[in-house]
Every structure is written in C-alpha cells, then in structure tokens.
Design goal:
The structure holds 2 protein chains of 2 kinds.
Chain A (H helix, E strand, L loop, with lengths): L1 H12 L2 H28 L4 H17 L11 H24 L8 H18 L4 H8 L7 H17 L2 H21 L6 H21 L9 H20 L6 H27 L4 H6 L7 H8 L4 H20 L3 H4 L6 H34 L8 E6 L2 E6 H30 L2 H25 L17 H4 L10 H25 L3
Antiparallel strand pairs in A: 1-2
Helix pairs in contact in A: 1-16, 2-14, 2-16, 3-4, 4-5, 5-7, 8-9, 9-10, 10-11, 13-16, 14-16, 14-17, 14-18, 16-17, 16-20, 17-18, 17-20
Chain B lengths: L5 E12 L2 E12 L3 E5 L6 H8 L7 E6 L2 E2 L4 H5 L2 E4 L11 H10 L6 H10 L15 H13 L5 E5 L7 H16 L3 E5 L3 H7 L2 E6 L2 E7 H6 L4 E6 L4 H11 L9 E4 L4 E5 L5 H10 L4 E6 L4 H9 L6
Helix pairs in contact in B: 4-5
Classes of the chains: A mainly alpha, B alpha/beta.
C-alpha cells in the first residue's frame, strides 16, 4: 500500500500542472489580503466624513429646491415639511461634528431623540397645527410642548456630560414604572405582547446598569451583546404572537425562535464569564479593520481548496484512461480497490497539506497586518443546552478542518463521476456544478417556493460545513446534525459506488 | 489440476459487445518457453482476446487460465505471472522513462534499481531513459513498454503489436531479445501484422478472422510444408542427359508420375503429388547424373494467411 501511495504521489506531483494549481490555490489566500486592503481603502474614512457628506447633501437639496409652485403635484405643507426636515438634519449633523460624537457613540440615540423633539418645536414655532404635525411628522396630537422642552434640556445634559451611568439608571426606573403600570392595567393595547416587550426592555436596562456600560454603543462588546439579547428577545415575542400564519411559516417561526434562544444563551454566557464570542465581536464597530474581520473575508478564499480538490481528483482518475496506463495499472499485484484507495489517500493528504498551508498563510498575514482588537474573542457553541467554548485560534483551525472535510467529500464525488464517465470534462463540470451552482438553485427554490422546503436536505446545500463551525446550520432552518448526517451518508454512498465501479469495470 | 507445460489455456472463449461477437469460441494454448504469434485482419478479435487474457475484459463465455489459475476467479494469482504491453504504448508522458520504470519496479519487491538499469540497457534506452516520455518516438515508447513488461521476470509475456514503430535494426534486436527470453523458459504470446517477422520469431502461429481462430500452425510444420513441387539442380554438363531421363521417366510408373519444366540450364522444377524428391534423386544418381541440390518448395506464412483469409488487410 505504501508503494502504491508513493506511485500515486509521483504521478500527482510529477506533473507541472499540479504544482501550478496548488500555487494558485495558495496565492488565493494571499490575494485575500489585497482584496481586504482595497476594501479598507474604500471604507476607511474619518468619523467626521459621513456627517460632512450629509450636511453637504442636505444643503445642496435645499439650494436646488425650487420656489413653491401651486400647480406642482406637491402640496405646500409637504413642501414646507421637506424644508423643515432637511434643516433639522443639517443641524443634527453639524451638532455631532461640533460635539465630537461619532456614529457608533452611545449618545447617538439621545441625539436622535433630541433633534426629533427640536423638529417638533421648530414646526410649532413656524405655525404648524397639530393635525399636520401628526400627518407629516407622526407626532401625537396630545404632546405637552413644555414637557418636550424640559426633556430636551435633560437630554442635552446627558449628551454634553457623557454620563451613561445616570442615564441608564433613570431609563431603568422609567422602564420599571412603565412595566408596573402595564401589569396593573386591566386593558393593555397589544395585550400580553406589549407587557413582554416592556419586560424585555426592563431586562436590557438592568443589564446596562449592572455592567455599567453605555447603552447601544456599537464600539463596546458588552453593550453590543446586551442589545443583541434584546433584539433576539423582541424577535421571539414577535414570532410568538404572529397571527394568520400558514403551517410552513409557523414552523419557520419555531425554528427561528429556537435559533434566537441559542443565541441569547451564548450572549448571556459571554456576559457572565466576560468572554466575548466571535459572533458578538463581528458586530462590534472598530475604526481599523481587525484580524477577525480580515479572517472572515479571507476565509471566502478557502473555496479554492475545494475547487483544487475537484480538478486534481478528476485528473488523477481520468488521465489513467487517457494515457491508457489503466491497462498496466490493473496488472500490478494489488487489488483494484487498493489502487483507488491509494489515489484517495494521496488526494486527501495533498488537500490536508494545502488546507493547512492556506490556514497558516492567512493566520500569519492576518496577524501581521491586522492585530486583534483589544479583546480576544472565543468560539462558542451550544450542545444540548450547554455552552462550550474554545479560543478563537482553535475555531480557525476547526473552520479550516471543515473546509478540508468539504474538499474530501467533493473529491469523493468527483472521483465517482470520473470512474463512471471516464471523461474529465464531464467530471469537472459535474463537480463544479454540484459545488458552486446547485446549492444556489436549491436555496432559491426553497426560499421562493415554500413547497420545496424539503430541499434543504439536499446533499450539496448542506456541504458548507464551515457554517456549522461558524455556529450556523449549513442551510437556514435545517438542524446541523441532520445536515452533517446527510453529508456523511452521501459521502459513504459516493465512496462505495466509486469502489464498486472501479473494481468491476472493463477497460 | 495444475498443468505442467501449458502456461496459458484459453478454452472456448467468446466475447460479445451487444449484438457484435468480437471473439467466437476461441481456444488456444501457449506452452512453457513457446513463442506464440497471433495474426489476422483488422477487427479479427486479436486485441479483444488479449484484453480478455489480461482480465481487462470479461469473457461472455468460456474461460482462461494462466498456470492453472482462472483469470476471473483468481485474477491476482493469474496476473502475477504475466508481463504485458498493449497495442498503444501507455506511459505517463510527463514523467521520464526512468520514473515510469521505477514506478513499475516499486510494485514488485524483487525488482530493484539494478534490474531497472539492466532492462534499460537490454532494450537500448540507456541514453534517453532520463528524458520525458513525451519526447520519445513511437519505437522508443515500444521499447519502454517492453522494458516495463519484462521488469518482473514474467513467466508469460503478452505483447500486443510490439513491433509497431520499430526500424529494421530495432526489429532484429527485438527478435533476439524475445528468443533469449523464451530460451530462459518464459512463454510469449504476441500479436503482429508483420508476417515475416512472426515467421522468424514464433514457434507457433494462430490466424484469427472475424472472431474465429481459423488456423493454428507450428512453424516447423509450415517449413516442412508441401513437397508437391520442388526444384532439382544438377551438375553443369549433364543438362541434356538429365532432361532426357526426366522425360523418359515422366509417365513410366503410374504411381510415380510428374511434370517438369526446365527453369534454367541446370535447374528443373518438378510438380508431382506422387513422386517424392528422394525417389527422383535416386533415379538421377543411378543414371550417373550428379544432383547438386534438391529444394522442396516451402509454404510461407503469408501464403497460408492469404489462402485462409483471402488476403484481407491485416493490422
């Protein structure tokens, strides 16, 4: 067997084309750096730039807006509403610029509220009546203007003082009062759903107070985690109370709720143990590209390993028929199954080496160019209700392992087709079609037409095991274990068919 | 029961591809140390038969055994004795001749580097063995195939059209090589369209046509051949007496009639189905005529082939 392996290795690596293809696959991982750098150059702007752009845009709109003409389709009130709205936007963006408040700052929410109130006050000063205010700006007609002015004064204190601790406490107190009021009410608009949403709000604010972090700050992982928990809780409540849904949608809602619960469990674990998961860290805003973000982008290039596997597998099988060497190969004192086994083994060893090399290149380049941003994330998963975690580096290896497994399965498929049809062009086309195009078609079919929902268990759709490593099922709404089982069963079938055909076929 | 002398035993083998019968009830045997040649027109079934012997194709009916091992049921044991080359040389063109041979050598524990060097020299590829096979001529590729097939000291060598692409000198080398291999006890089964070379090389020849093995002859039989016509060369100066004597005896005895032609001054061609050359020799000698040579007419393989196949084109 060792000798057979040696021979297959010579056959594979004695060919210049093999080395070129492997080099290309590895270059792909280096190319990822270039693509990331280009993308960074596009997106790397100062925090002021979006505000400056917004001010310029609204000013231009105002300058270009013609004088009101009664014959136009626009009513005069609508015309005035536009001007009021744009002026308000200009003021808000200028304020953020002058006060040094970037878009990811926790105060952005308060700034939004402040200028919304300003819009109301400006409109009232300009003589707008309550009907038009409700119609064009959505302000309730029973607003107490004095109260609005008072609120804005308080909001400005928080904005300028940057005191989120006090803000959190006050917001929590308000939320608790509201919740109590809702619970005591005989009739609540929206019923139980409203109460549950208010409960979720209260819990969120309790967490902000407990962890003493700025609320809704996009650059703070704890704040992001708390916001994620609230978002998932909100979704679960929405799905729970969704009415008039068909059976298929109801089933989807149950699955989505389960996924949201798992996400909440992981985020709570992160908060309790001060271990940010990679899922959270992906959502945390950073001014510079982090290693994690680079890795997510460069990982896309790992598909090159699978494509390399398909091409070389087809070549290694079909060339024996093309060169006629299969005739002498079968005369060697080995069983045909052993010969095919040696071919599989060589391909698998080669793929493992290339995957590891690609992983190493990505890790080294990424680590060199994009340092980890302060906090090292961990990879987290939930199995049977228990949260498990490993350092992110281990997760990287796990993901590349998934790429390797994916490549091995596609190689098995390509070998099977090659043995069956003995035509390299047909085998390459089948392999690439199954890997790249078929899953897209199936996804489209079952997302557009509910009746094809069962297609989520189609083999090639489930092949993206890297999603399992990334804490996602290969296909939305499919259970990860079912997907894995399908892939394993099909791999076994491909393997058995290839052996059976290779063993019995005439030459 | 394992046979002692029969190395290859093909029994009543038939191969059908759909409605087409490529090989039809063919039986043949190759014995130890024998060189057996197989010839026939295009599509006569030679290569199909070879492929069945090598286990590349499964017979529709009949069976084939090598050293008594059934090549279907005991394939590994059967092919263990066989070295083979196929009609078209098959190597990895992007590798060197040496790498191709070493890969084959790898497969057999008793074949070492020294053996590879020996075989390389034997087939005359020493100077080019490290070049890539894609740069080889057809003749060189054939030599490489032969080298590959004899690497493991096979006891049955099967060569499908091994002479394709050989120049006369290479052909001569090949014939010598095959004879020395056979002399060492290896049996050889080869197919060829070069009848003269088969005649020189083989101990026995089979002729296939339309899937049938239509004739099988030992070369010795072909060479003893037909004595119905022969030539007599007499000593110069006795031409007239010899002519007279031959004419007088032409119809003298009803059991020994013949006709004759004077081919040249001293040579007469005799045609007879009843007069043996030895008897006529004695008549001439007793009459005091010196007979320098009697040559019986030898039927060539080509003549046999033509008479059996009507001269169909062979490959």
């Amino acid at each position: 067997m060792n000798k057979l392996f040696q021979n297959e290795w010579i056959k594979l690596f004695g060919r210049k084309g093999t080395k070129v293809l492997i080099a290309l696959a590895l270059i792909a991982s280096v190319l990822a750096v270039g693509i990331q750098m280009l993308s960074d150059r596009e997106t790397r702007v100062s925090w002021q730039e979006p505000y400056q752009n917004a001010v310029s845009r609204y000013e231009a709109q105002l300058n270009q807006y013609p004088e009101y003409n009664a014959e136009e389709w626009l009513s005069e009130t609508e015309y005035k509403a536009d001007i009021l709205r744009w002026n308000n936007e200009i003021q808000k963006n200028r304020f953020c610029l002058d006060s040094g408040i970037p878009s990811w700052d926790w105060r952005m929410g308060i700034v939004d509220r402040y200028f919304r109130n300003m819009q109301l006050l400006d409109a009232v000063r300009a003589g707008w009546n309550s009907q038009d205010l409700e119609r064009y700006f959505g302000f309730p007609s029973d607003l107490d203007l004095a109260q609005v002015e008072e609120t804005n004064k308080e909001l400005m204190v928080y904005i300028l003082g940057n005191d989120y601790s006090t803000y959190n406490k006050e917001q929590l107190q308000l939320a608790e009062e509201r919740l109590l009021k809702l619970k005591e009410s005989v009739f609540v608009e929206g019923g139980e759903k409203t109460v549950e949403l208010a409960q979720a709000d209260t819990e969120m604010l309790e967490r902000y107070v407990t962890y003493n972090v700025p609320p809704n700050a996009k650059d703070n992982w704890i704040s992001v985690a708390i916001a994620r928990i609230r978002e998932n809780q909100g979704n679960i409540i929405e799905w729970k109370y969704e009415v008039n849904t068909d059976a298929e949608t109801a089933r989807e809602n149950v699955m989505l709720s389960e996924a949201a619960k798992v996400s909440i469990q992981k985020d709570l674990f992160s908060l309790t143990n001060n271990l940010p998961s990679s899922d959270i860290m992906k959502e945390v805003y950073t001014e510079r590209t982090t290693y994690l973000q680079f890795f997510e982008n460069s990982f896309l290039m790992s598909a090159s390993v699978v494509i390399l596997g398909i091409l070389l597998a087809v070549w290694l099988i079909c060339m024996e028929y093309r060169y006629g060497t299969i005739a002498t190969l079968v005369l060697y004192p080995f069983k045909r199954n052993q010969m095919l086994h040696a071919k599989y083994l060589v391909l698998e060893v080669m793929l493992l080496c290339v995957t590891l090399l690609e992983c190493l290149i990505t890790l080294c380049i990424g680590k060199y160019l994009y340092p980890v941003s302060g906090t090292d994330p961990v990879y987290m998963t939930v199995v049977k209700g228990t949260v498990y975690w490993v350092p992110y580096f281990a997760a990287v290896l796990l993901r590349y392992l998934a790429v390797f497994v994916q490549a091995v399965i596609m190689v098995t498929f390509a070998v099977m087709v090659s043995v069956l049809v003995r035509s390299s062009s047909v085998a390459v086309f089948s392999g690439l079609f199954a890997y790249l195009i078929l899953p897209q078609i199936v996804r489209m079919m079952y997302s557009y037409f509910g009746k094809f929902f069962v297609l989520r268990y189609e083999m090639f759709v489930n092949l993206d095991l890297t999603r399992i490593a990334g804490n996602l099922p290969p296909v939305t709404f499919a259970e990860w274990w079912a997907a894995s089982l399908i892939v394993i069963v099909w791999w076994f079938i491909f393997r058995r068919v290839s052996y059976a055909v290779y063993k019995r076929q005439e030459i | 029961m394992r046979s002692q002398s029969v190395i290859l035993d093909v029994k009543n083998v038939t191969k059908k591809f759909g409605l087409v019968t490529a090989v039809n009830h063919v039986s043949l045997q190759v014995r130890e140390g024998e060189i057996y040649g197989l010839t026939g027109p295009n599509d006569s079934g030679k290569t199909t038969l070879i492929k069945m012997i090598l286990g590349h194709l499964r017979p529709t009916a009949g069976n084939i055994s090598v050293f008594g091992y059934d090549n279907q049921k005991e394939y590994a044991d059967a092919v263990d004795f066989i070295g083979a080359t196929m009609e078209y040389p098959n190597h990895y063109p992007y590798l060197s001749g040496w790498q191709n041979l070493m890969m084959t050598a790898n497969m057999y524990p008793d074949v070492n580097k020294a053996r590879v060097e020996e075989v390389t020299e034997l087939v005359g590829l020493k100077s080019v063995i490290h070049q890539k096979v894609k740069s080889y001529s057809l003749g060189m590729k054939q030599r490489l195939s032969i080298a590959q097939s004899i690497l493991k000291y096979p006891q049955l060598l099967i060569l499908d059209e091994p002479l394709k692409g050989f120049d006369p000198s290479a052909m001569h080398d090949f014939v010598q090589l095959m004879k020395s291999i056979a002399a060492n006890g290896t049996s050889v089964l080869l197919t060829s369209y070069l009848l003269e070379d088969l005649e020189e090389l083989c101990d026995r020849v089979g002729i296939m046509s339309h899937g049938y093995l239509i004739a099988e002859r030992a070369m010795a039989d072909l060479q003893v051949g037909d004595t119905s016509s022969f030539t007599i060369r007499i000593k110069e100066g006795s031409e007239a007496e010899a002519y007279q004597l031959l004419r007088d005896n032409q119809n003298k005895d009803i059991d020994e009639t013949y006709s004759f032609d004077k081919v040249s001054d001293c040579i007469f061609e005799i045609t007879s189905s009843t007069m043996p050359p030895s008897r006529l020799n004695r008549i001439l000698v007793e009459a005091g005529i010196d007979v320098e040579e009697i040559r019986t007419h030898r039927q060539t393989l080509e003549e046999l082939y033509t008479s059996l196949t009507g001269g169909a084109e062979i490959e």
